[in-house]
Write a structure and sequence with these properties.
The protein is built from four helices and two strands, in the order H-H-E-E-H-H. By secondary structure, the protein is α+β, with helices and mostly antiparallel strands. The two termini are about 45 Å apart.
Length: about 140
C-alpha cells in the first residue's frame, strides 16, 4: 500500500541544513582519555600487559673485619598483570537505506558516516566511564 502524504507535505519542500548535526548525547569529553592517548605506549601484541616494579632493598651494609655476612635473599621485584579486555559497538544498517534511499544529491548526510561517528563517541564514553571505575562496568 502506498504511503499517502497530507497536502502540506506534498506541496512544501523540506529544508535540511547541510553539514550540521547537533550532538545532544556526547557533550563532555574525557580529559583522562585525552591524557592516555597523548602518553600511552602502543600495544605491540601479547596476551596481557605486565608492568614490573622494584619495591624492596637488598641486604648489606658496613661490616667489621672477620664479621659474617648476611647471605639471605630478599624479593625486590614484582609485577602487575593486566589481562586484555575487548570492546565492541554494533551498528546494523539496511542495504536499502544506504544503497537506494540515502544516496546521490538527495542524501544531505551519509547515514553510515553519522553512525560511525556515533559508534566512536559511544565507545569513548564507555571507555571513559570504565577507566574512571578502574575497569568495572
Amino acid at each position: 500500500m502506498a504511503n499517502l502524504l497530507d497536502e502540506l507535505n506534498v506541496t512544501t519542500l523540506k529544508v535540511i541544513r547541510p553539514k550540521i548535526i547537533a550532538d545532544l548525547a556526547f557533550k563532555k569529553k574525557s580529559p583522562f582519555l585525552a591524557h592516555l592517548r597523548a602518553h600511552a605506549l602502543p600495544h605491540e601484541g601479547g596476551a596481557f600487559i605486565q608492568n614490573q616494579f622494584l619495591y624492596g632493598k637488598t641486604t648489606g651494609g658496613p661490616y667489621a673485619k672477620g664479621e659474617t655476612f648476611d647471605l639471605s635473599t630478599s624479593q625486590i621485584l614484582d609485577a602487575t598483570k593486566f589481562d586484555m579486555r575487548y570492546y565492541e559497538q554494533n551498528d546494523t544498517q539496511f542495504l536499502e537505506d544506504i544503497d537506494v534511499e540515502n544516496r546521490g544529491p538527495a542524501a544531505v548526510f551519509s547515514i553510515v558516516t553519522a553512525h560511525q561517528e556515533a559508534l566512536m563517541l559511544t565507545m569513548n564514553e564507555n571507555l571513559a566511564i570504565e577507566a574512571y571505575r578502574h575497569g568495572q562496568p
